[in-house]
Specification:
two-stranded antiparallel ribbon; 7-stranded mixed beta sheet; binds S-adenosyl-L-homocysteine; 237 residues; 9 strands; alpha/beta
Length: 237
């Protein structure tokens, strides 16, 4: 009897010692943590810790074409087909930080692309509506998001210039393709105190990342925060 109790106690000691050592990160988790440290070093001002935590969790390799997976955790944009790219991780973190995401927020993303930015947002807010103009990319992103298990992201094929009124109004809007100027329908769909981040400028040139805030009285206040380079916001022919 005593021997049984002693061996049970030994067993418990071994189990608690193992759990004290904690979860050992897998090689992919280590790569993600390294990517987050690169993002942190890149930022002039510290990014929200919640955003960095989410970026250490979202499996970016699931959103890049299989042939590019080896580079999934480098801080660089990667081609996703159809002349489009998954944004650089630093830019994804920076744009997410700029909209001050809150757990109750409803957010619109224009330019689903791979679905990665939508996944990062979805872990920080209540609901994400994301719209993509290239049907194949929209379908591929919807499948990836579904397979990973996101249930608070709604995807749609369409021209995001006009926003998505039925899914909003929005606490925040993230536009991931460059527009010549801020599309008025997007400003309309922003709630009072809503925040928008959008690259503004000519196609294939350096654009300015602009933050637009809608005041309580509807006034729009904008500021430029960073020179960036995005693919153009397409218009339907
Ligand atoms: N957010 C994406 C980055 C995508 S790149 C990601 O995390 O992977 C920009 C995307 O915007 C491209 O997929 C492009 O097809 C899409 N796009 C361009 N013009 C658009 C428009 N008018 N409406 C919706 N999507 C558009």
């Amino acid at each position: 009897m005593l021997r049984a109790i002693v061996s049970l106690l030994c067993c418990l000691v071994v189990i608690s010692a193992a759990s004290a050592l904690g979860h050992r990160p897998s090689p992919i988790e280590e790569q993600r943590q390294r990517m987050v440290r690169v993002i942190e070093r890149h930022a002039d001002e510290p990014l929200d810790a919640r955003v960095l935590k989410v970026m250490a969790e979202v499996p970016r390799h699931e959103f890049v074409p299989p042939a590019r997976r080896g580079a999934a955790y480098e801080d660089t944009p990667l081609p996703i087909g159809f002349g489009q790219t998954i944004s650089q991780p630093f830019i994804v973190g920076f744009m997410t930080d700029l909209i001050d995401p809150e757990p109750t927020d409803v957010v619109l993303e224009v330019g689903t692309g791979s679905g990665y930015q939508a996944a990062v947002l979805a872990q920080l807010v209540d609901r994400v509506c994301t719209i993509e103009i290239i049907p194949e990319l929209a379908r591929r992103a919807a499948t990836a998001l579904d397979e990973i298990g996101y249930d608070n992201i709604t995807t749609r094929i369409g021209d995001g210039y006009f926003g998505w009124p039925d899914c909003g109004p929005y606490d925040a809007i993230v536009v991931t393709a460059a527009a010549a100027s801020i599309p008025p329908p997007l400003l309309e769909q922003l709630k009072p105190t809503g925040r928008m981040v959008i690259p503004v400028g000519g196609p294939f040139l350096t654009q300015q990342l602009v933050v637009a805030v809608k005041e309580e009285d509807g006034t729009i206040r904008t500021r430029q925060v960073l020179p960036v380079r995005f693919v153009p916001l397409r218009r339907e022919p």
